[in-house]
Amino acid sequence: MILNPAIIALVSNAWLISAVTLAAAVLGLRIIRRWDLNSTAGLQLAMERQTYLISSVLTYLLIFELLSLFLFAFTADRLHSLFIGAMCAAGSLNVNAYGYPALQLKLVNCLLCGIWLIVNHVDQQGEDYPLIRFKYRFLTVIAGLLVLESYLLTQYFRHMRADVITSCCGTLFSEDTTSVAGVMAGLPPYPAMIAFYASMALTLRTGIHFLVTGRAIRWFSGFSVVSLAAALVAIISFISVYIYQLPTHHCPFDILQHEYLYVGYPLYLCLLTAGIGGAGAGVIDRFRQHASLAAVIPRVQKKLCLGSLVAYIIFLMISGYPIVFTDYTLSGY
Amino acid sequence: MNRNRYFLDYTLVSLWRRRWKNAALIGVYSAMVFLIASILFFGDSLRRDAAVILQDTPEVVVQRMVAGRHALIPEAYAAAIGQIRGARNIRPRLWGYYYHPASQANYTLMVPADFTYADDQIKIGHGVLRTWAAARDNQLFFKDSDGQALPLTIAETFSGETDLVTADLILMSAATFRRITGTPEGFATDLVGRVRNQQETRTVAAKIVEILPDSRPILREEILRTYDTLFDWRSGYVLVAVSGAMLAFFIFAWDKATGLSAEERAEIGILKGVGWDTGDVLRIKVYEGMAVSLTAFVIGVMAAYAHVYLASAPLFDHALKGWAVLYPQFHLRPVFNGNTLGVLFFFTVMPYTLVTLLPVWRVAIADPDAVMRQLG
After folding, report:
1. Total CB pairs under 8 A between chain A and B
2. Looking at the 3D structure of chain A, how many domains does it have?
3. Which of A118, A241, B196, B253 is 20 to 30 A from A140 via CA?
4. Is residue A193 part of a domain?
């Protein structure tokens, strides 16, 4: 275990968030079982009030999850100097088997929290809380995943051992330890490029189609999730390479550093926004039939679709800039 | 948008109406942020300074071990290490400590590779000049290894900027060093060398151990890594130590958010009576929390910045620096990064927000009729 302020902050807050979400999920379970809008009992009134509490909790949760996602990546990056062979966060996350799963789960949880907030927003527009049961079942899943995330995070930091000098021996000690794999294997750039731009084109095409005709939102939603995955692969495979102008450097974390003008932050924020918007639009499409939501959902979907498209376009522009406007080219590789 | 602006406006006015009560909260909150921010800033700066200092040091230091202890190394070892491909500029170093009874302090003696002054001249740091009790006419009196007095003339002093590393430093010629410390000819304190290719340092170190089994190579990257861990560990421990204070603060915040005055209760009752719903009340309460957090955060960070970088962290530099107290005036170089602010946010604003959420919600759900009945 390395006792570092950032690690203490991440771990203690992960558990704090988990505890608060678990408490919210327990309230949610009661709502799932006992919810009856026609009842005038005190319990029903209390539960209606609790929904406010739970929405506020989840709103904060999304903000904190997003922040901690970046803080985690940043911290992992800062810790790389403690391990032999690690060049950046890609290496320090490889120090043990928990690093990457923790990061991936954090990403997934961010997406899920965002989708939950969209569902919640739609639900509050309907007069009769039409999605209340779905919403709280969804919440229990999120709570479970958050606990798992906290566990992975704790294990990751707990099993970390810095390669430091001990008083009895210098380098010999370090010689015995194996060095971690410092580089990330990326897909070859051209297939990744084709997959990325094809999925982006399909997303934009279906998105515009939906905005014009109001149809095929599920196609858009599906493609935008595929695009999110393709974009993450693309960042590792060629976007980062263009940003660093270094054919061997496939690191998705260094773009968060000031050497590269923090360009990673807008990139990842755009991706998350676009992914959450796209996926959320698809999830709420299931509830179109509800009488009280018939007018609400298409309106919300339009906004989400537009937001998602804008975010993807910004992503394309930022990531495309070094590809188009610098002298660097991958054609030799 | 407009609606939110009105809410925000209302919040700020209501905060201002109860400014003394809120001032107390913001005061304690800022103190909390100040404390934690100071620890983080200080740790960051030390880590950075260590890296800066070590930047130009040689990649490898080779010591000789005898009976598990660091011993003098034969200068002939340098030639053997020089044979290793990739190792270059291997040279012996002479350095040590000198205890001066009159000032009751230990000083560092060193022989630089390019010492230009005569054998009876020295170059010293400011700390030496300040503390050496038996200085006279630009001369310092030493005792050599045979107990004979040895006056040496100060030829030059270091500039104050490098105080952190040069405060206790005395530079002299090799002959004088051997005379004072009794280091025999042909031996050195340790050897240093450069390795041209950074990736090769570990291989070179392994080869050194192979041809000179009684030697202990230490790599610069290892020293750096150890310092990093050490400073992290120290600031981590200080944080754990103040966690009690943090808990106390969060309980205080919880309490403040729970215990509403009759006046505030009435206010919320009336707001709900005139048509605000629970969500609206919750929103102004959340805005209130954000305003308080933001104010305290800014005040705390600025105070910590002044404390650490303008005043050199007088409150706890001993705990974090952990070096001898002879060390003197030095100014930390400001290191300011988003990561530190993020960590600070996670230690203060985030728990505060979560802790106050439940009491705030309790306030927001209050029934207007119940409140107003109490009033009447």
Report:
1. 124
2. 2
3. B253
4. yes
